[in-house]
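Q: How would the structure tokens look for this protein?
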Amino acid sequence: MKNVYYGPTIFIEKDDAVLINEGQTVTLMNWGNVKINRIQKKDSGEIELMEGETQLDNKDFKNTLKLTWLAETSLAPLTSVKCIHYDNIMTKPKLDEGDTFEDYVNYASKNEYDIIGEPEMAQLKKGDIIQILRKGYYICDIPYDAATQQVCCLLNIPDGGTKEKPTSLRATDNAGAKSTGDKSASTVVSGPEVDILTERIVLHGEKIRELKANKSASKDDVNVAVKELLALKEQYKKLTGTEYKPSNASATAQKETKKPAVDSTSNEAEKLVEKITQQGDKVRDLKANKSTPKVSQIIIKLISES
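A: Here is the predicted structure in token form.
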């Protein structure tokens, strides 16, 4: 399992920051809840930074905004990464008689984005395949090299999805550039909805186990929590088309660099079940890790691609 670094200064994406208000409680994924006390803005009105306080005892994740984040720490520097997205070179699958070739050339078929990655991304080797949460799958084309200051270069792996990207890499698709084709073929069992739902199911399962272990918890509280978990699993079924059965996942740990099987719905569903199991392991490890620093005050800075 990868190392998770904590600290009083963290980075979140600019597109997430604009959704946050003062006094709001947000969830740092795989860490816990944070209450935002102050938002500092520039003269232009853009958000510069935020200040908040951790509320790790607050286990209410039901209606919170889920945020991916990176901590600034002297223990391990963050990695400079360039993400490259390739689109179709033509905006029409097949030219008809009378069509002019130049009219259908996609002159924006290549897009590059500079991002900040976690420390472990500096260890990627050429050909490694990874998933960046809420952005997609990437293959390492050029590894990071500290000696030459060569940034890590990642090539996006198309997943066939047509959903708009949820964060700052959302401008990679050109309107009308892709053929609609068969609607069922464009349905992909992945995305931020699945990530958030996965986390909620795992955390809700933990909550129920804690309630059952707590002799002072009432039966009504347990029943309410169970009903909420069943509702979440029903949402999962509607979203993915498959039942949530973590027991069906392989007991053998899979490498994080495993290539996504996007050409088979059953393989995708299997991978989602595996991800749920791995997410549950992360939550349990974090709760059992006594070395996790007790950070009470947090400064949140923003990152976005240049």
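The domain at 192-288 is CATH 1.10.287.10 (Helix Hairpins).

Residues 165 and 171 are 8 Å apart (CA to CA).

Upvote if useful.
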